[in-house]
Design brief:
The complex is a heterodimer of chains A (121) and B (106). Chain A is mainly β and 121 residues long. Chain A contains no helices and eleven strands. In chain A, strands 2, 4, 5, 6, 9, 10 and 11 form a seven-stranded mixed beta sheet that branches. In chain A, strands 1-3-8-7 form a four-stranded antiparallel beta sheet, with no helix packed on it. Chain B is built from no helices and ten strands. In chain B, strands 2, 4, 5, 6, 8, 9 and 10 form a seven-stranded mixed beta sheet that branches. Chain B starts with a strand and ends with a strand. Classes of the chains: A mainly beta (121), B mainly beta (106). The interface between A and B is medium-sized, with 23 and 25 residues.
Chain lengths: 121, 106
């Protein structure tokens, strides 16, 4: 059974950098999946942030691309998100998820439980 | 960017009733999925490819549609089905979600 677990600071100051990691267990991060971050502001809908493949290839949401960096650590089986120059609008629950991209499918089949990150001084 | 519009925003029904949720795309969609989200939980994959139930999803859930119009149907609502439902698509290396339909108990 694949499990994903987010970790990182729950509070970030405005103009600072949000840094989260997602530990993957029950499967290898080097397998043929895309590893994604999705966020959800309190009481609002879902927004895809970006994804990374085991090769290191990345795709980012154009709305966040200038502020986002994703990376992965194959030896420790986790991937990471960095979002810089944060504002209150970046306050959200951040989810990591395993992405399946095939000839007819583009979806997330496993999700972490989510971690709330608040941007506030 | 493809915009997904879900309707209705809120659907009030009773257990045992049939629920029909819609999702309309601003352009033709190639990849499409449905998710269910309960309070305090991560989204859960319901349907892939618009009509294939994900592992462990009961048969009362069904999906249909193609192109720009998609439907999620729950044939007979169980108490655990009351939640928020999101549609999702991927196109040109960008994923977008609908704004969600809240299915609430009447």
């Amino acid at each position: 059974q694949v499990e994903l677990q987010e970790s990182g600071p729950g509070l970030v100051k405005p103009s600072g950098t949000l840094s989260l990691t997602c530990a993957v267990s029950g499967g290898s991060i080097s397998s043929t999946y895309w590893w994604s971050w999705v966020r959800q502001p309190p009481g609002k809908g879902l927004e895809w942030i970006g994804e990374i493949y085991h090769s290191g290839a990345t795709n980012y949401n154009p709305s966040l691309k200038s502020r986002v960096t994703m990376s992965l650590d194959k030896s420790n089986n986790y991937f990471s998100l960095r979002l810089n120059s944060v504002t209150a609008a970046d306050t959200a629950v951040y989810y990591c998820a395993r992405g399946v991209l095939g000839s007819s499918s583009a979806l997330w089949d496993y999700w972490g439980q989510g971690t709330l990150v608040t941007v506030s001084s | 960017e493809i915009v997904l519009t879900q309707s209705p925003a809120t659907l009030s029904l009773s257990p045992g009733e049939r629920a029909t949720l819609s999702c309309r795309a601003s352009q033709r969609v190639r990849y499409f999925a449905w998710y269910q989200q309960k309070p305090g939980q991560a989204p859960r994959l319901l349907m892939s490819d618009a009509f294939n139930r994900a592992t462990g999803i009961p048969a009362r859930f069904s999906g249909s549609g193609s192109g720009t119009d998609f439907t999620l149907t729950i044939s007979s609502l169980e108490p655990e089905d009351f939640a928020v439902y999101y549609c999702q698509q991927r196109s040109n290396w960008l994923y977008t979600f609908g704004q969600g339909t809240k299915l609430e108990i009447k």
